TrEMBL record:
Protein name per UniProt: Class I SAM-dependent methyltransferase
Any single biological process term in GO: methylation
Entry's Gene Ontology molecular function annotations: methyltransferase activity
Name of a matching Pfam family: Methyltransf_25
Keyword Methyltransferase (UniProt): yes
């Protein structure tokens, strides 16, 4: 599968205006069925000190960031889709949810300085929704929002137009270094069908550039 030339999510919404609503409804249905939808969030929670600052990059309906906020973390969630963000705001009103583009991400604090996070998580195949031209800028922006010693955790499945080698090359160009690689959010050894990557800034102290 070749890399997408346009944002896959935006294309899906254009082709089906109910796409975002159906997506949100699916997750709520899984919760109603008693299904476990928080595997990614449990890993991030285990990696974080209590009260850590966490960015949920591509937060969707807030299932990861909302769960983490309920465990005492300071969470900000960003997603391109306004409907999904509205669902996150409804389900987790105490969390800061922002409609935004990861490829142009520029979050500022009250003093106008770039916000930086102890952990950034991008799960749910978010990276594979990006157009090819958006991938490197998104990774660069995420690196710039890392706190000193901060970590970026990315997970996505194979066969979605973004293979592990291409992702690794983009991460390297973005100034990120791969620290660990797994095949599941339960930290099974690397495999070809799914990537969970833990990355840090390749140049400590350079995150705010």
């Amino acid at each position: 599968m070749t890399a997408p030339q346009e944002n896959v999510w935006l294309a899906a919404v254009r082709n089906d205006p109910d796409h975002a609503e159906n997506y949100a409804r699916r997750w709520r249905s899984l919760v109603a069925q008693g299904r476990d939808i928080h595997g990614e969030a449990r890993l991030i929670d285990a990696m974080a000190d209590r009260g850590s600052s966490i960015l949920d990059a591509g937060c969707g309906t807030g299932r990861i960031g909302g769960w983490l906020a309920e465990r005492g973390h300071e969470v900000v969630g960003v997603d391109l889709d306004a409907h999904l963000v509205s669902v996150a705001r409804e389900d987790y009103p105490s969390v800061e949810w922002i409609v935004g583009d990861l490829a142009a991400l520029d979050l500022a604090d009250g003093a106008g300085e770039r916000r930086r996070f102890d952990l950034i998580v991008s799960a749910g195949n978010v990276m594979t929704f990006l157009a090819e031209s958006e991938r490197l800028p998104a990774l660069q922006r995420l690196r710039q929002h890392l706190a000193p010693a901060g970590r970026l955790v990315v997970g996505f499945g194979a066969g979605r137009g973004y293979d592990v080698a291409a992702f690794g090359a983009d991460a390297d160009r973005a100034g990120l270094r791969l620290e660990q690689r797994y095949s599941t959010w339960q930290l099974h050894p690397p495999a070809d069908d799914f990537l969970v990557a833990v990355l840090i800034s390749a140049t400590p102290g350079d995150e705010a550039v």
